[in-house]
Write a structure and sequence with these properties.
With 152 residues, the chain is of the alpha/beta class. The chain has 8 helices and 5 strands; from the N terminus they run αααββαβαβααβα. It has a 3-stranded parallel sheet, with helices on both faces. It has a two-stranded parallel ribbon with strand order 1-2.
């Protein structure tokens, strides 16, 4: 089921908190020489944004800066993208396993952890503890995720 339809406003707390974990990163490095924009430039990286397939329809309505490449799932070889990525920023996605297997760094941005842990989200806490079992640092706020990305 598609959650977003053409013409639907992007709203709600999750949307206000940048739609997906990477959107905050994208927007923080977007229009000026912020730490992320500088880190991307120094490393010669391209900054790409690929939201979850369930919210791909919202991608055209997102205010992404010109230097951020929006990547749809359709027509993309996601495994090839994993192989080429230099760093993955995610929230709780199992994509981290694929990227970590390829020995690429992972940063978890879990701004909504309280909602996950107290049942206000479709997900719920499981056996996997990201600090203990994950493949990289866990950031709970915007400043921490920026610092983790810049340090990677």
């Amino acid at each position: 089921m598609n959650r977003f339809h053409p013409g639907t406003a992007i709203k709600g707390e999750y949307m206000k908190r940048n739609l997906t974990p990477a959107a905050a990163v994208v927007k923080s490095g977007s229009r000026s020489r912020t730490p992320i924009a500088a880190a991307v430039a120094v490393r010669g990286w391209r900054l790409a944004f690929m939201p979850h397939p369930n919210i791909q329809q919202a991608l055209p309505r997102m205010d992404l800066p010109p230097h951020v490449e929006a990547l749809p799932y359709a027509g993309e070889d996601v495994q090839a993208l994993h192989a080429r990525c230099a760093l993955l920023v995610t929230d709780y996605s199992s994509l981290a396993f694929n990227v970590a297997y390829l020995d690429r760094p992972v940063v978890y941005y879990q701004f909504d952890r309280d909602e996950i842990e107290d049942g206000r989200h479709v997900g719920r806490r499981g056996y996997f503890e990201y600090e203990r079992d994950g493949f990289g640092p866990v950031a709970l706020d915007h400043e921490a995720v920026v610092a983790a990305i810049v340090a990677s």
